[in-house]
Amino acid sequence: MDLAGKTAVVTGAASGIGAAVATELASRGVSVVVGDLDEAGAQSTAATIHDAGGSAAALRADASDVADIEALIALAEREFTPVDIYVANAGVIGKPGLGTESDWDVILDVNLRAHIRAARLLVPGWQARGFGYFVSVASAAGLLTQLGAAGYAVSKHAAVGFAEWLAITYGDDGIGVSCVCPLGVETPLLQTIRGIDEPQAKLSTASIEQSAKVISAADVATVTVDAIRDGQFLVLPHAELLEMYRRKGGDYDRWIVGMRRYQRTLRSH
Description:
10 helices, NAD(P)-bd_dom_sf, globular, oxidoreductase activity, acting on the CH-OH group of donors, NAD or NADP as acceptor, alpha/beta, Cis-2,3-dihydrobiphenyl-2,3-diol dehydrogenase [Amycolicicoccus subflavus DQS3-9A1], Rossmann fold, SDR_fam, Sc_DH/Rdtase_CS, two-stranded parallel ribbon
């Protein structure tokens, strides 16, 4: 895909991966609508893009709210062109352990239903145009798991599954999909997890930081935008994740036993 002249919406783009992806897209000629609950942060990302000579607009938006998604899409059409690329990046870690009913509602809303709601609004128009691109920023937790956080592990598995379904169902209609699955990334989300003084949260932090090198959001943004350009589905910013995923699929029972052993090791430190 020739990115120049396209229009994108990026959710959760006040900081972290979202801000980095928005900035990277803009550097390649994409007009970007920056959405986030943190209005000041969204405006700051847009200002950074403007200062670098790019085109951006910002809006306070809850990525899981249908009216707010509609507002992001409308802003893109008003300021630039109809949305070509939608980056569903906003995410939350959720509560440690099994969580409560309300905890599950929150994490499924943000990490999964936000993607579904955006697709419902965008796919019919993309089908009519014969083009569109959906980016699901999931996690390595969606391919492996997340120790200490059931809601995060399950919602990210579901996000990967939804991205797969979109790619299969609408690929022949000209709609592309990328699913981004990093291991540890230095973001405010990771900083939040580090700050939770609770055994399961500490387990989550240790597993993230010890699984592989913690990389920058800019590293993730570069490979993500390359994947959009190339039409690549599975995006693995950590190359070693592919072998981890293969080992899981190669012997599922052995993988579970190994993960339990790894969990015991982390808890003993």
